[in-house]
């Protein structure tokens, strides 16, 4: 049988997460993160949809997601996936951008896929150093040089005025969901906010945001749940504070989007070692 390994490390030197998935077949539904994701395919062939564009990923291809880029992916060749990535929070990326360019801003990377990128080797070396808990400055040097090339070659030349072109009505809905995610929200409420029909609202929201209103709501809930788990709250407490109907629903959806259960994710941030890690094995 296939051996599935999921390893997640939080590096307190670089202030980022490193994920390594080996031997997985999991399909990830359409969602987004509130942080940057920079990763690559080690083995496997993956169908990716990002910002309503379709891509086929193979070994050696690199992915770069901006915060709030909607994306979904699944295996297409019947084989398992080996994948590595680093997750960089916006406030951390802002400081790295300042260090590299002299301007503290949030870059907007222009393409989610870099086919057969020469940067994969550098990212692999950096990722391995994080997993091996190395602490010398070579690790930071690798990250800065990697980000420097990504910023120069694959991001907007100037800090963007706005990262998303949406209408006032759709922005109003997003603001409402972000303010009321802990509550039970109905489609009627959202339609009343915009004076649109429910069908027109669904189509317009999905076209502009690349994700449906309900999936947007659940993604906001999951992103907030991550923050609460990082603070040490128990999964049952987090489920109650983020609007999920019960802990089972919360656990299932969390794993669909993050690849770990809430309990597993909480453990990364729940001990005193300088470099925090969780590894799960499934045979």
Automatic annotation (TrEMBL):
Keywords carried by this UniProt record: DNA-binding, Transcription, Transcription regulation
HTH araC/xylS-type domain span: 171-268
Entry-linked CDD domains: cupin_YbfI-like_N
PROSITE patterns: HTH_ARAC_FAMILY_2
Organism expressing this protein natively: Paenibacillus xylanexedens
Protein name (record): AraC-like DNA-binding protein/mannose-6-phosphate isomerase-like protein (Cupin superfamily)
Pfam families, alphabetized: AraC_binding, HTH_18
InterPro entries, sorted: AraC-bd, AraC_XylS_family_regulators, Homeodomain-like_sf, HTH-like, HTH_AraC, RmlC-like_jellyroll, Tscrpt_reg_AraC-type_HTH
């Amino acid at each position: 049988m296939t051996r599935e390994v999921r390893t997640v490390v939080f590096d307190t030197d670089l202030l980022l997460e490193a994920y390594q998935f080996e031997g997985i077949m999991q399909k990830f539904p359409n969602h987004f993160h509130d942080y940057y994701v920079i990763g690559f395919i080690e083995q496997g062939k993956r169908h990716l949809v990002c910002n309503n564009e379709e891509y086929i990923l193979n070994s050696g291809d690199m992915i770069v997601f901006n915060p709030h880029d909607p994306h979904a992916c699944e295996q297409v060749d019947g084989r398992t996936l080996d994948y590595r990535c680093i997750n960089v929070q916006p406030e951390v990326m802002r400081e790295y951008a300042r260090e590299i360019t002299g301007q503290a801003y949030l870059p907007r990377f222009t393409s989610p896929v870099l086919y057969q990128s020469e940067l994969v080797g550098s990212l692999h070396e950096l990722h391995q150093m994080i997993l091996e808990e190395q602490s010398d400055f070579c690790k930071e040097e690798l990250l800065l040089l990697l980000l420097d090339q990504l910023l120069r070659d694959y991001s907007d030349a100037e800090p963007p005025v706005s990262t998303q072109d949406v209408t006032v009505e759709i922005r109003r809905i997003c603001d409402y969901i972000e303010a009321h995610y802990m509550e039970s929200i109905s489609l009627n409420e959202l339609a009343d906010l915009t004076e649109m029909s429910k069908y027109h609202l669904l189509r317009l929201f999905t076209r502009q945001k690349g994700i449906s209103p309900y999936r947007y709501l659940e993604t906001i809930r999951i992103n907030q749940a991550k923050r609460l788990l990082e603070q040490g709250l128990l999964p049952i407490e987090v489920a109650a504070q983020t609007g999920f109907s019960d802990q089972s629903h919360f656990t299932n959806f969390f794993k669909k989007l993050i690849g770990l259960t809430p309990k597993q994710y909480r453990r990364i941030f729940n001990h005193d070692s300088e470099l925090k890690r969780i590894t799960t094995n499934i045979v």
